Amino acid sequence: MIDKNRLLIKGLAFDALGMATMAIPVVGPFLDLLWAPYAAKKMQEMYSGKKGKIASILVFLEEILPGTDIIPTFTLMWLYTFIWKKENNQDLTLRPIRVRK
Fold first, then answer.
1. Which residues, in sequence order, are CB contacts of 91 under 8 Å at separation 6+?
2. How many domains does the chain have?
């Protein structure tokens, strides 16, 4: 079974590390060249299947492109997987609303 809390904590840590490179003036962008492939590998390890592959590509692009380090990709993936995903909301049903004239 997947430990949701552990994935969230790891994701928050990886997002913090990715954002930390912005704080280092000259060396930071060069650290992103090393961090981007590592972050992509970790994302694919954390989330399997097609969604993990897509997320790993997105995190790679987010880390490699300048100025996008502020996007918390790991946290957004966790939210998508455990909060926003359509399958998790199957118990919600649509009910018609009657409008009175």
1. none
2. 1
